[in-house]
Design a protein that fits this description.
Helix content: 40-55%
Number of strands: 13
Mean pLDDT: 95
Shape: globular
Low-confidence stretches: none
Number of helices: 19
Radius of gyration: 22 Å
Strand content: 5-15%
Structural class: alpha+beta
Largest sheet: 6 strands, antiparallel
Strand order of the largest sheet: 8-9-10-11-13-12
Length: about 475
């Protein structure tokens, strides 16, 4: 059993950590000396990815400094590891940038807001996620040409929301904290008064639109009829049916591998979910290019049908590689990286997809890969960061800060972290300073990638 300290002892731990690593020290951007080339780090990742997809990744990352940042979690991990850290451990998201927060359907069909990407999750010092979020807010604000004052207030508000929420959670009983979650009504109740009528009306429309992005919408957009039965469309290189990728393998051999993979995955689900999964039959499989940082890893979409052809279920199958944090924080306790992602997600999210599971699969070309599974579309609410207004962005940043604190409070010592953060805004201001400095560094890294593309050192496919 874990050691159970008193509240007073946990408060003392936070203050001891504060003495060892002052809150003001977080305002400094530390990097290894010499700092590795950002492109060099990306190229090392590319060596383990699907070669034909890597140029798409570079093309997407070259589009802007914010797009670069989304794909450069490994670059920032190297920088974060160079600085002293608090030693106060939580389950880290590992890639907690602002675009990795959003809404989705809970199992009881409520629209909840949470972190939605856990590919890099690993236990580590809580401030690493805070810094990743804070820097993303400054960088996204620069992309929108927001004034420096607005960007600073946005970051300051997010970190303040994180700190105040951690104090709120530190005072809660354990079970009460575990039941806390944020839905769209909660967002309106907590922060709605800070917005104007236009913003609130826009938010309601976004929610309504998100609730229409479901499995039936996916059926209409991603499939067509072949011999009277739905099949996933071909749209290379973004969506490629399995038979086009492996046309030199016998169809029955591919189907055998897919069925074996589904059986292996089903074993990771609770019995009731396994029963539900078994009520669907596998129909078709296609490789799908997703995101920015994930491009080059293998991602599949499996079409399943239930009662009839109008009862679809799309299973997203994403490759899980070692977390970019592992070189600095140590290997995961889970030998299978799909399980690492799933267990981290379950720990951090207030409500997770009912089909969340994992498996290890031998591909037709003989490569063993780790995967995790979840539904492809089960509502999807995301804020349009390309059009968001400064005042709305400030509110959204607070929502993200609160959400990150709730995720950390579930897995870490919330009392010690709240004690470390303190009642004043010293930590908030230090992280805001850090975010601005790291945004400058990120712009230089983005420029390095663009220069490498222009010189032909790396190949990029833009606009895909």
């Amino acid at each position: 059993m874990a050691e159970h300290l008193s509240v007073a002892d946990r408060v003392k731990l936070g203050k001891q950590a504060r003495a060892a690593v002052p809150r003001s020290s977080h305002g400094i951007v530390a990097s290894p000396d010499p700092r590795p080339s950002a492109v060099g780090i990306l190229e090392a990742q590319a060596a383990e990815r699907v070669a034909e997809l890597v140029p798409i990744r570079y093309g997407r990352m070259s589009a802007s400094p914010f797009a670069f940042y989304r794909g450069a979690a490994a670059v920032m991990a190297s920088d974060l590891a160079a600085a002293p850290h608090s030693g106060l451990q939580v389950q880290l998201c590992g890639d907690a940038h602002v675009a990795n927060f959003g809404g989705f359907a809970s199992p009881d069909r409520d629209m909840v807001f949470d972190i939605n990407d856990f590919d890099e999750t690993l236990p580590g010092p809580f401030e690493w996620d805070v810094k990743r979020l804070a820097a993303s807010l400054d960088i996204a604000g620069r992309q929108r040409n927001f004034e420096e004052k607005d960007r600073s207030l946005t970051v300051l508000g997010a970190v303040n929301a994180y700190r105040m929420a951690m104090h709120e959670f530190a005072a809660m009983q354990n079970l009460a904290l575990w039941y806390v979650r944020l839905n769209t009504e909660g967002i309106d109740q907590r922060w709605g008064a800070e917005g104007d009528k236009t913003g609130r009306r826009s938010f309601r429309k976004e929610v309504e639109h998100a609730q229409k992005k479901d499995r039936l919408k996916a059926l209409s957009k991603l499939t067509h009829l072949v011999d009277g039965e739905p099949r996933i469309i071909s749209n290379p290189p973004l969506l490629v049916p399995v038979e086009e990728l492996y046309d030199h393998f016998a169809a029955d051999e591919i189907e055998r591998m897919i069925n074996a993979a589904l059986q292996s995955y089903a074993a990771t689900l609770p019995c009731d979910r396994r029963h539900l999964l078994n009520s669907y039959r596998f129909v078709h499989l296609a490789r799908k290019v997703v995101g920015v940082g994930s491009v080059g890893t293998v991602a599949w979409v499996a079409l399943m049908l239930g009662r009839d052809d109008a009862d679809p279920f799309f299973l997203q199958v994403k490759e899980a590689k070692a977390s970019v944090l592992e070189p600095y924080l140590g290997a995961s306790e889970f030998a299978q990286h799909g399980q690492r992602v799933v267990e981290g997600q379950r720990l951090m999210q207030a409500a997770s997809d009912i089909f969340l599971g994992w498996e290890r699969n031998l591909s037709p070309e003989g490569l063993t890969r780790d995967f995790y599974m979840r539904q492809l579309w089960d509502w999807k609410l995301s804020t349009d960061l390309e059009t968001i207004r400064p005042e709305t962005f400030k509110i959204y940043a607070k929502v993200c800060g609160w959400t990150l604190a709730r995720a950390h409070a579930r897995s870490g010592d919330r009392v010690a972290i709240a004690s470390y953060l303190g009642q004043g805004d010293l930590f908030d201001r230090a992280i805001t300073q850090y975010a601005a400095h790291y945004a400058d560094l990120n712009e230089r890294d983005h420029a390095e990638l663009v220069a490498a593309i222009d010189s032909g050192a790396v190949t990029a496919q833009r606009g895909i």
